[in-house]
User: Fold these one by one.
Assistant:
Number 1:
Amino acid sequence: MFPPMDLGGEQFLLRPSLCPHHALMYRSRPHSYRELPLRMAELGGMYRSELSGVLGGLTRVRAIQLNDAHVFCTPEQAAEEARAPWS
């Protein structure tokens, strides 16, 4: 999707966010309201390269692990999902 980037003699590739993948997985087949709420979560690596001298941010880390989660639910279930801790 994105061309490789050469940074300091290393090649890096950008990857899209996790959100489109969860939406595509949900959309891959019809769902009954009885299946809802449907929760999806994923761990994904994020890589960055801050310029020398940059202050702030994550202090020049190269890689971090992101956790991304989405809840597919009815409008009536949304308020409860925002309050309920996931188990």
Number 2:
Amino acid sequence: MSPETLVQPSLSIPSLPVSTADFDQYVMSTYARFPLTLERGAGCRVWDTDGREYLDFVAGIATCTLGHAHPVMIEAVTQQIQTLHHVSNLYYTSAQGNLAKWLVEHSCADRAFFCNSGAEANEGAIKLARKYAHTVLGIQSPVIITAHASFHGRTLATITATGQPKYQKNFDPLMPGFYYVPYNDIAAIEDAVALLDAGERQVAAIMLEALQGEGGVRPGDVAYFQRIRDLCTEKGILLILDEVQVGMGRTGRYWGYENLGIEPDIFTSAKGLGGGIPIGATLCKSFCDVFQPGDHASTFGGNPFACAVALAVCQTLEQQNLLSNVQARGEQLRTGLRALAQQYPDVIAEVRGWGLINGLVLHPDAALTSSDIVQAAIAEGVLLVPAGPKVVRFVPPLIVSEAEVDQVLQAMQRAMVG
């Protein structure tokens, strides 16, 4: 049957409203959801089922790079679904090759593997490091060092890599082969490498976030990361950076590692890569690309649909010079939040972040929690997200305007008063 003879769809499938009671009856309770049901979005704004408008400074948790219903994404989705949306990785597709080319040409990587999420991208990095350790370094019991307060995903391997016990509770036995150190502590990581290499286990890789997102929006220290880069080079250790939350322009540069003046051997991407369409990528330099056919795979990873949309996001990020907007709006937001901190010194301890990933840090002994602030902001028409019990995270779409940042700052002023 030729495309011309296919029956054209005539059925319009409505989005049926669902009560929160029905939702909770049928959906697993893996999230403590805020009490609003979102229905549609445009740009940096979303609307709930009651028609109320919100400025979205969550962006799917640093995912909706171009905001909601962006014309570029609509066009990419429409064109690709009408041609070829999914085939097996047994075949070549132009969309996957073109996306890989863009990512390699705009980073320090030489190769890309595509999957569906950040956790899968980090799984790929862990597997790649372990195979490299066995086949190149001759390590029998490889260890990957990660940081306390890190977050790398929800699979068994990635929650083990995640240095937060609250994510690991009741999921033991955990995966072996990980060791935790304090973040931004040079002496601690040097001691850990020496300790492990003196024993039966040896360090194969160090896996860190350039900026800890879930760990409280904590930027990496430049001297710390440059020492780690030197240490990895001296010892033959792989340096893996988890760029799932901070990559794709979020920090005002394409990749978080560019803020640190170093290059990783392996890094991962997801979230903002597809602008809200599920896709992840494990990227590496050629010397550690030890995967062979059959070593790793993904049924949906790198399919034409996801890759075409991701490429449209990447090209828009570049062609519209969104990095300049991220830098300007990030500075504007931090300046406004610091002014707020001066007004409420007993509540707000500091403001920290890069580009458009910023944290409002509350004093440990303050009565207010991050959830309290988020709830107050919702009442003022702004969506924010906690990054732990004492940090409020601001991660709007990268297209956010000066006027929208001002509107959020005014709303925060009202929320603090309330």
Number 3:
Amino acid sequence: MNQKYADRSKYIPWIFIPTLLAIVIQTAISIFGLELYIVKALGEAKGGNYTDFYVGVIKEFTQGDASAAMMLGYAVITAILGAWIFLTQFRNHKFSSLRGKSNNVLFTVVGLIIFVIGMQYVTLYLLNSLASAFPSWLEEYNQLMETAGIDSEMTVLMTLYTVVLGPICEEILFRGITFSAAKKVMPVYFAILVQAIMFGAFHMNKLQGAYALVIGLGLGYIMYLYDNLFITIIAHMMYNLLGTIGSEYMPMQESGSLIVFFVATLASLIAVYLSVIIMRKASAIVNNDRFFDDI
């Protein structure tokens, strides 16, 4: 290991702790919430077959507002705990300010918008390609989305989690703690890759993990450019908003032509690449060579 990173091995566990912490909290809250829901349902039960009762309770819990409420609870608890870890271990008890992070705010905003739209199509085409190659992955993905209540009939609570609290929680964990820890012990581009891999693995679904890894690479690079969680949180929120509420308004290419598919995919990749160039040009941190001052 490079001597620059040799005395920073204490940060290695923090690369993995956020993922494990999130899984443990999510599992614990889900189990506790389900137990409460079963107790409530037992109190209201009026006889019938136990197996049918139990299956019905599980279905109502996983597809209703109860499950969404559990996810909101998980996100709030994890975000608060993650923010505390991030601030105490990596930020000297204060969040990084937006001041001085961009040389051109307009370029940063335009770059973010292009990035979000382009990444939406990149991940869509990636998902379609993987689904065509591995149909079983698509079945697992659709089942996951249906069970989680993330579909065309999303509840208000699930929308709140998907668009607001989920991105806040995940950005604190992965672009905050994991990325900050990784860049303490390895070159920054490896750190970007590592946090993206952890972000993809956290989703524990092949298709979702694949496009989460790609999104994680982009968000990790934005964090590298601006060193500010607020920017990555906004980008993540915009991406999720466009992918849920705004997806019906996005022009989609439904042609079965491989040439059209290839051109559309290439155009999306070019758009994302251009957005990265724009945001890099606007980054005060990178252009002023101040990135390594505080690591």
